[in-house]
Amino acid sequence: MPNMTSPVQRLFNTCKEVFAACGPGIVPPPGDVERVKAALDDMRPEDVGLNPDTPYFRIMAAERSPIIAHLCLHECDKFSIVIFCLPASSAIPLHNHPGMTVFSKLLFGTMHIKSYDWMVDGSGGASAVLGNPQIQPCGVRMAKVKVNSEFTAPCETSILYPANGGNMHCLNAVTACAVLDVLGPPYSDPEGRHCTYYRDLPFTSFSDGASSSVPEEEREDYAWLQEREMPEDFTVVGFPYRGPIITTND
């Protein structure tokens, strides 16, 4: 008899197994990372009950400031599965994922992604780039650009890790688009996994003499990230998930 398990149920089952022994800052073994990635790579918009004509986009496009819809398919202390629906020209501002491994699958649309990783002194010539810490204002850290590109669905699942892979990123919707995310573990204020927002400032803003040690053509690969409050024009509204049911068997 053919396997009638839905794609979203297979994704849930895989995540439940993979993240069972994981926690904050603990990345699943490479084989398990590939299992989650493979499950997401096969996902299509219809597998979660979405298409570009879904009412979320019409409702959000009518607002003065773009509203982003958030659909929660599942959340527990080990992982969460969520969808963000972004109308054209909307954006999710630069933010982090503390201690988290995050898988992102663009279901449809075109999106520009810019991501960063923190520069760590002592690796990859970072000492020369970081320069004099005394000239760095409070709440500002050096980061290196990981990704700065447009992506159009269908495309491969992207993965970011607690310390690399572009842990801080911002998403800009070129067209209406939807992103299916798996976060392990999810954000948790009680456990100290807060979502922090940043503004990115040019490399030359605080680098002083250190800027001369980096060739001019490479300076766009670095930036200073400054902590900020959540932007006032960033609005996320929760909507009920109406796609195929996930059976948790808890």
TrEMBL record:
Reaction equation(s) it catalyzes: L-cysteine + O2 = 3-sulfino-L-alanine + H(+)
Keywords: Iron, Metal-binding, Oxidoreductase
Lineage top rank: taxon: Eukaryota
Cofactor requirements of the protein: Fe(2+)
EC number: 1.13.11.20
Top enzyme class: oxidoreductase
Protein's UniProt keywords contain Metal-binding: yes
InterPro entries linked: PCO/ADO (IPR012864), RmlC-like_jellyroll (IPR014710), RmlC_Cupin_sf (IPR011051)
Iron is among the record's keywords: yes
Family: Belongs to the cysteine dioxygenase family.
Protein name in UniProt: cysteine dioxygenase
Organism: Rhodamnia argentea
